[in-house]
Structure formats: structure tokens, C-alpha cells
Amino acid sequence: MDLISSLLSRYRSVKSRLRGFTPRKALVLEGGGMRGIFLAGVLQAFMERGYSPWRLIIGTSAGALIGTAYAARQIHLARDAFFSELLTGRFIRMSNIFRPEKHVLNLDWMIDTFINDHADSLDIRRLRRFSCPVLAVATCFYQHAPPHPVYLSTKRDNIPQALKASAAIPFLYRNFVPYKNELLMDGSVCDPLPFKKALELGFSEKDILVVTTRPKDYRKDRESFWVKRLYESYYRDEQYQYLVEALGHHCEMYNQLLDDMESTSGIDVIYPPDDFKVNRLTRNEEKIVEGFEQGVRAARKYLYNEPEKQEPGQAEQ
Predict the structure, then answer these.
(1) Which pLDDT belongs to residue 19?
(2) Alpha helix (H) ranges present in the chain?
(3) What is the distance between the alpha carbons of residues 204 and 181, in angstroms, rounded to a whole number?
(4) Is the pLDDT of residue 292 over 90?
(5) pTM
(6) Please, are residues 90 and 76 in contact by the beta-carbon 8 Å criterion?
(7) Do residues 56 and 126 touch, judged by C-beta distance below 8 A?
(8) pLDDT digits 0-9 by tens, 140-153
């Protein structure tokens, strides 16, 4: 852990230097599994520099979990989970991919660890009474209608259930999450980039900051034949017809959201750099550390308009 300790010690001193610019009031966080380490870096830098103008945070999947830790002023809970628990074989179990009775993502263990198993567990009281609200995006499953997004609030909903529902990725987490007579799953199915929810709630374009977990100009490809077959085989019962259709059209929906966001000139966006190497299921510690550092640098550039610093030995472009 020496590498991680050395890394974190470099980001604990700067507090001043924030230049005046239009304050942002709604923070929107994309999901993406382990790609969320970029969010953790961005929000760590925001918290250490005292930048917190938010009246609302909206997050999907990993974005909901990390945004909740940030709102509770405990971003270290999410950050340290990426550097420890989430790198272990207890969370990602690829050997279960062809065992339909077993989870590939051990989400129950992860949420319980995040909420309860720390010396300073998630501060539910602060989230309820003192923090700005966080909306965790989930997807409501219906047997005879298309799935629909729901937005669960840290002010009124069960926080562990909301975070679990938002992150319950289809197929990788085998169950739906029951909550208030509904069956819920990963919010990315219906609203992976929930900036339109912020607009719907009355925030103007200039008052929204979106942090993505994919580089600028990324567009999602259709799922491969084999991934599609896995979904269709697992959700082969007729009751899942509309869910399978939604999953089949997910890339078009996601790409349209990106087009809409990028054509909305008033919205600010922080993207990972083009050489961001973390994917949804990455378990390589060096890549995770690098992704965290990239998030810190991206936040610094946003806050202070600092250019990216060239690494020693890196050739001029």
C-alpha cells in the first residue's frame, strides 16, 4: 500500500486559489463500475479544495455510490474501497459468468461493506439532515411494459437499498432489488447520464456539471453477438421481453444522450483523458491508481484552468 499512501499524501494541502466563475448547482455523475475511480479522483479534489456549490447530486450506479460518499463528506470511503475491497476476488467473480445461480458482482457484500464495515461507516444522519440531496438513479422492471427510470433520494428513501438498486447491473447481478413493491435494477439501463433529470427539476444548463467515466468523443458500440446471446439466454422468459428490448437498444439510447449533452452548450462536462485505461471490471491496481490520479488532475484543470502536466520522459506531441 506504499504506492497508494504516497499518492494520497500529494493531494491533501491545496485549499485556496479557486478563481471566480459561475457556480454550478447540480452535479451529475455517470456510472461505470470500476471506471468510477475517475469520479472518486474528481470529487476528492473538489472536497479538498472546498468546492461544494451543489444543491443536488444525481448519480447512476457507481456515480450514485461515490456521490453519496461525497455528499456525506466521506469520499475516502468510496476511494479506499476501490483501492482495497473492490480489487479482491470477493467482489468481481468472473468464474460465475456461466453459473446463473451465482452473482458475477457480489453487490450485497460490497454495499454492506461500504455502509457498515468501516471504523467510520457512512454517515446516514448527515445525509438525511445536513447534506444536499443525492438522487440515485435506478430502473424499475415491469413484466408487461418497458422499464422506466426512478430516482431514489437520500432524504427520504432507504439509502442502502437505493445504492444497491442503482448498481444492480443486469446479468452480472442476478437478482432484482425489491423496494416499495417495485423490482429495481441498474439505473444505467434507462438513464446512464441523468443530466436531463436536472433540467427537468428546474436547473438551467449553466448550473449543471456532468462528470463522465468515458473520454470525450466516445460512442458505444452494439453489444457483441455473444454478449447479446448471454442476455437473451438469461432473460429468455416472456416476462422479460421489454427488458431485453431495452438492453438491445441501449447503445443507441446512450449515444443519443451523449449527442444531446454535447450539443447543449451551457452544460459543463469533465471527461477522463483519452488514455484512461479503466473499464467496468478492471482489477489492476496500477490502472486504478492511474485512473484516480487522472480524476484529480481533471478536477484541478477544471477548477484552476491548469494545463495537463507532462510526465517525466514523455515525448512532446
Answers:
(1) 41
(2) 2-9, 37-48, 62-71, 75-83, 107-116, 124-129, 159-167, 195-200, 225-234, 241-248, 250-263, 285-304
(3) 34
(4) yes
(5) 0.85
(6) no
(7) no
(8) 999 989 999 999 99
